[in-house]
Design goal:
The complex is a heterodimer of chains A (841) and B (243). Helices cover 55% and strands 17% of the residues of chain A. With 841 residues, chain A is an alpha+beta fold. In chain A, the strands form two sheets. In chain A, strands 2-3-8-5-7-6 form a six-stranded mixed β-barrel. In chain A, a hairpin with a 4-residue loop joins strand 2 and strand 3. Chain B contains eight helices and ten strands. Chain B has one domain: Rossmann fold. Classes of the chains: A alpha+beta (841), B alpha/beta (243). Bound molecules: adenosine-5'-diphosphate and magnesium ion (MG).
Chain lengths: 841, 243
Amino acid sequence: MNTWTLKFAWRDSRGSRRRMLMYISSMVLGVAALVSINSFGDNLKQAIDAEAATLLGADLSFEGRAPFNDVIEALIDSLGGEQSRRTSFSSMAYFPLTGDVRLSTIRGHERGFPFYGEIETDPPEAASEYLTGRNALVDATLLQQFNANVGDSIRIGTVSYRIAGKLVQTPRETAAIMLFSPRIYVPLSEIDRTLLARGSRADYEVYFKFEDGRDADALVEELKTVLRANDIRTDTIKEEQEGWDRSLSNLYRFLSLAGFMALLLGSLGVASSIHVYIRQRIQTIALLRCFGAKTWDTFRVYLMQAIAMGLVGVILGSLVGLGIQALIPIVLADFLPVDVVVSISWGAIWMSSGIGMGVTILFALLPLLTVINVSPLIAFRSELGVDAKTPRNWMWWATIAMIVVGITTFAILQAPRVLVGLSYSAGLFIVFSILWGVAQLMIRILRAHTPKKLPYVWRQGIANLYRPNNQTLVMTLALGLGTFLIATMLLAQHALLQQINLATEGDRPNLVFFDIQPDQVAGVADLLEENGVPVIDNVPIITMRITGINGETIASMRADTTRRLTWAHRREYRSTYRSKLIDSEVLVEGELVESVDIETIGLIPVSVEQDVAQSLRISLGDTVTFDVQGVAIDTRISSVRTVDWQRMQTNFFFVFPKGVLEEAPQFNVVLTRTPDAKVAGRLQASMARAFPNISSIDISLVMSVFDAIFSRIAFVIQFMALFSIVTGLFVLSAAVMISRFQRLEESVLLKTLGASRSTVIKIMLTEYMVLGILAAATGLVLAIGAGWVLAEFLFEVEFVLPMQGLGVLIGLEILITMVVGLINSRGIYERSPLEVLRTEA
Amino acid sequence: MSLVLSVSNLTKIFPSGDREITVLDSVSLELMAGDTCAIVGPSGSGKTTLLGLCAGLDNATAGTVTLCGHELNGLTEDERAAVRNKHVGFIFQTFRLIPTLTALENVMVPAELRGRTDVRAEAFGMLEAVGLADRTHHYPAQLSGGEQQRVGIARAFINKPDILFADEPTGNLDDDTGSAIEDLLFDLNSTSGTTLVLVTHDLDLARRTGRVFRLKMGAVVSEASNTAGPGQGIVSELLPPTG
Ligand SMILES: Nc1ncnc2c1ncn2[C@@H]1O[C@H](COP(=O)(O)OP(=O)(O)O)[C@@H](O)[C@H]1O
Ligand SMILES: [Mg+2]
């Protein structure tokens, strides 16, 4: 490298530097996305490490699905340290003032928890004061839903509490989790014990704080066997930290891949600007050749300029990224368990800048290769007809290979697993190829089939998209990708809403009562009748566990380390008995036995769901022994069913025939259908008054929660899509800049030929509008494909286009394209022909 | 007197679709140091192609070019670039100044390409010699055509080339400016002893060179000497009288 290269590169860029800044702008946002997301990732990791202890709130926790037995109680006793217990269960929260009810997660606490960090409440002092009596801390969103206030009362079961404060942030729970089931904290000593009756689900936990610096993880390892045997799960600070680390780094890595997409588009934009820039330099390059410049010296002159552009882009991108970084915790707020303190992460900046630089230079190499193909003879030929094509030689292919390898490497590094990274980069190439293909097709079709009857202004505007050195394809790609992401989210959300409507439409049940004791069933039916709603179904539920399969006990299978037991072996099953299939089930093998006589039958024929049968490795004819609350029942698999879990039905893994479980301890679920939310609310309230132990779920409410959660996810993805859209707009700005001289010439020519200023502007607006339409159409074609796949296979609903939403999206996109185009064209179309000839020629 | 340029049986064929066009057909010529010659001929007769081949800017289909002792055919592109840088200067019809460089910087380019860094004063001297001492920091767009060509000439001479190729140097200038440029060119040539190859269809200009090669349909159809006594008559036949 000699100093001439640098010196000449600098001189050569004179007069183009402002323009080059514009070219770079398209990569700025991609770098900014990477910088901000990766910095955020580092911040997040720091926050989790710093607040690791508060994530659990203790050094160690035990958790069981039943009250701790004597063995565990003795163990807890022996462990010592500070202890605090908590019992959680679902129950109806009843607001006497308004008569509203909602199923909530009730957590009974003792003083002590959390040992680390704190429960954040409004007012703050409520966090400790509520433990002094019959007080409750209630999820802020729940209070908001029913217009309740601090100081009001709330009833859970038969116990009334004074609402002492709003829950703002609690250990182990994010805002997104709260949406599913609102939280209510009460003193453990004040909970209604009858709600914990046999059969209803509750979590029993004990939290430990060890002052003596005991290693909780080592302790867990040591106690593993006894805890396992008693179905006690444990959690430690380290486990909690690792768990959050894993899921959150997956989250931010996913975002970072989305940012990378914006970077790729931006680099593509830079490369296509450089392509035009190089074409404008061909005479200079030829001249240098004449005077004896070596091939690679001229190449390096422009490589230097590209590197300088990349550097400026990376610096600008980092600065913008630092700004955006502050936004990300806000965008993701609902998914984060800790407050993330925004701070500069040099590691993230270096890495993102390196990636930004690498990708930009790799893409820039493609047009730069043109330089080595410029013949010095061109200096003797007039500018017209100068055509220096980028050679498709080994260097070109090597560059392409480097780009592919680079992208794949990045994807693998960012993805949690190699395979995910590979599929991401494969997916990326597929999406890009399809986008590219569709964009190319649209552009060609429009060119070939521009209607001849269109007014002149239109035809000229469309023709302008095909001027030499046009950037139409790259712009269509960038804007199209953004449209694709946003529209796909729109379509997915629409499909979800449809699924929600489907779930509760017609005469399907939309209100479910559960935890009904057998002796309450008649009373519940009466209450429903009084309110004029039907009992659509009354389903008995019996909880049980598997103790043996084909004569071998689970305990012995557990002892055999070569056998891998799954969740299916360990879990508690809630089964029912009935004589026929329901409409969410399909029999695939065997026969459903209607009823049996328990005295004579021996092995009881049961029906099993297909997936769980696979997990248990059982099939037709195998025997399974259940422990039904202390009684062993031997069964034989007599049929296998598939179950459509998406249907809002009471679905079961195991279905028993009638005549076996009728006398077992059980509770019932009653399904009904209410005409509207008001009746549903009233009914739930009267049920809560009459039977405090009975819980209810309004299915439309559950569905709207799904919708709310999905909206938040869609919001995050659409936020990322914005990077692509804005990148596309920057490419557009650069493209207008590049074609500035051509546009000037065109407008001068048109004006000389007598076109009015407004005609010239109309032509330009048509050009930008058609570009917007092209991009929107490209993104839409892909989004509709993706939306169809989602509707058909994920949501299983009929695919319908949400015309209104898409219309607004496309309208906005076209409008923005026109506005950005117009802003960048300032000054081009105002100038008088003479003035132009004097200054720009 | 040493041989500067020797061209023998030079042939250039361009593929044109599925046909081939023979632009140069077995052209031979030799120029000694200090010679001045003009290549004349109608548009499209292959003048620029011949010049390009002589200067090592392109590869011949057949035949050889030897430039200042270097047989160009056997050299790589970069080796030929080095030969050009050491021995050759160029002047173009459309001036070909680099628009982003000042007049002074334009003149410096060939010298800097030699790896020299201390050329500012020398370049200034050249601009002085062509009468542009007060325009050194102007950009090409700020100069008239004649001034731009003066810069072009200064640039062509800065490396003290052994041979100078000029393709229609006055083709884009009005008559008065053109003849001033011609005077400058011949003055500098005679003081520096450079071999001068002029491509032109301006017969007045051709008349001022020592030898004239007339190209037609890719072949040198006649060669005449303007200085040698006996040749005078041939040239008179070749070129219509001026006036
Ligand atoms: N790269 C090329 N490919 C094909 N034909 C060419 C090429 N360069 C020049 N020609 C043809 O060669 C002929 C001679 O061109 P040129 O040397 O420029 O003539 P002149 O300079 O005498 O006007 C012309 O017919 C031209 O079209
Ligand atoms: Mg010519």
